[in-house]
Amino acid sequence: MKNKNIDIYTIADKAGVSKSTVSRVLNNKEDVSARTRKKVLEVINELKYRPNSSAKGLASQRTKTVGLVVSEITNPFFSMFVKGAEDKAMEENYNIMLANSNWVVEEELKCIRMFEEGRVDGILMISGGGSDLLNNYLNNLANKDTPLIVVDRKLDNEEIPKVNVNNIAAAFKGTRYLIELGHEKIAFVRGDDVAASAASVDRVRGYREALQKFNIENEIIEPGFFDREEAYQATEKILSSHKDITAIFYASDMMAVGGLKALDKAGLKVPDDVSVLGFDDIELASIIEPALSTLKQPRYQMGYLGMEKLINKLEGKPKEAYAEDVIFELELIERESTRAIK
Which among 312, 279, 313 is positioned nearest to 296, based on CA atoms? Predict the structure, then answer.
């Protein structure tokens, strides 16, 4: 018998129970005896019945669907976040509605409002962007008891669980690594203080703290706006202004890719002439030439954990299962693009 011809009336009739009993079993209610539950589940398995999530949602006011907002779905940086979130949702039989904001605050607000008005049980936001307007809206959303988890975003609201990385410590670690290789003229290509907010600011801070710690006064910072072409131009500007540069630390791997192109055009060899360090460890980092030394951000784990927290909240788990903020440390991955000064 095909699933589309089976409903809870069919199951109830075959199991010899009421429709409401079948409904309680499907919704995992506790007021069903073990014997009856076993009998109903045996019939469900025999008939290969799969509940219709929409119909089930109408009855329970839940849809088993969550909204996922991403800053830029075409950016390789975000792909593993989404993969982790998707895998966890599939494990728990949840559906995902995906919305892409393209780093535009107004679009992010539009995506969130769309999910508020639509039938989603909760919202997972994976976004490195920053805006007082958006942050205020998210804070108001939390006050309305809308289940919300944010990944890769800082918010001063204890009611919104967050999953982040320690960007300051990571940038400090990367800069210290270059210094320990003997580099003293180290340029830093940052993101954008507006679009990237805390991540960009914190990475600059980590770079500066490392220079200060090791008594290096040569601070060289250029904006790359987390964009490959912008980083290409930033690298050209660095090379023209600082001809004795020996290392460049890029605040993202995609910017490092643009930097490698600019260095090649200038006739400089990596790492013989200039060492290059990235940030994120996207898939491209290990396969380009030379393979990129970088700081590995656990993007899959962050997406997975963010979705796990959201589902735990939706399923009514104890607060400790979802409420605590998590901050990951980054691992330094040493490949071919960096070397010690001879």
Answer: 279
Residue 132: pLDDT above 60?
yes
Residue 288 in any domain: the answer is: yes
**Which residues span the domain enclosing 13?**
3-51
To 5 degrees, how large is the angle CA 273–CA 222–CA 206? 90
pLDDT above 90 as % of the chain: 60
pLDDT digits over 107-128, tens only? Answer: 888 888 888 877 789 999 998 6
Closest to 183 measured CA to CA, from 293, 285, 273: 273
CB-side exposure of 304: number of CA atoms within 13 Å? 10
Closest CA to 147 of 185, 94, 197, 184: 94
Q: How many domains does the chain have?
A: 3
Amino acid present at 199: A
pLDDT, residue 51, reads 66
Domain at 184, CATH number:
3.40.50.2300
CA proximity to 257, closest of 157, 339, 322, 337:
337
Q: Which of 315, 261, 284, 310 is nearest to 80 (CA)?
A: 284
Within this chain, do residues 293 and 187 fall inside the same structural domain, yes or no?
Answer: yes
Read off the pLDDT band of 197 (50, 70, 90). low
Coil/strand/helix, residue 341 = coil
Domain at 20, CATH number? 1.10.260.40
